[in-house]
Task: structure prediction
Amino acid sequence: MDLFALSIRARPPADADELQPSCFRCQTINALLNQGGDKCTACGHPFVRSYVNFELLPLVKFTPARDITPTEAVALLRREPPPRKPSRPRAPDNPWGSDGPDVQTLSLAGDAQAAENAGILDPDEPFTKAMLDFEPTGRFTATVASREMLLTMDSSDVFIMQWSTGARPWEFYRNMLPDVPVVLCHACNHFFHEEDWELAMMDKGRCPFCRASADTSDAGSSATFPTGRGVPMSNAAPSPIN
Result:
């Protein structure tokens, strides 16, 4: 019995790829259970989950360059971004191709290449280039965003966390799949799927995690300039940083 139990535990995971979490930073497919924690085994990026159904959210953490203050970063994000490029055509599901009547080839593209073909990643974007440039050591290092990168971002895809204590720096997240709407509650700094959030608002009128009312939580699905309650970037003015 003990030997049989050990042999079962020693088997590698055989879950389907669509059931395993995929890192939205490096596009690496991870096992359902990771002894190192809830993070990517390749780049070490912590998984950001919705605090209702705990599904993985397409958020990637980054940090502005050291010479960019949080106020300047918000001002750069407010500017009108360049028009988005049309989505790339999706690659065919069948990886087999025919080079002749008697020749068949199998295309085994990398994860990043597959994401590019699916329209998830734009390899020409500066932020994407920096995001995919990392050492696969398993230790997370946030992507450093320059002024050029911040100018190319759409403010509706960026979320900013500000904590009640000034000892913790602001945290910046970018939604890599804008078609998947995400909401950030500024009362507890937790993310949710927009549908889950709206359902909780219609049912209880409160955040499903911290129970803050909708009047005080100031949650939103667009980038915000956090001033304690999270003032929307579209109508907020930068305030001095203490």
Summary: Residues 194-203 form the longest helix (10 residues). Residues 87-95, 106-119, 224-242 have pLDDT under 50 and may be disordered. The first strand starts at residue 59 and ends at 64. The chain is about 20% helix and 15% strand.
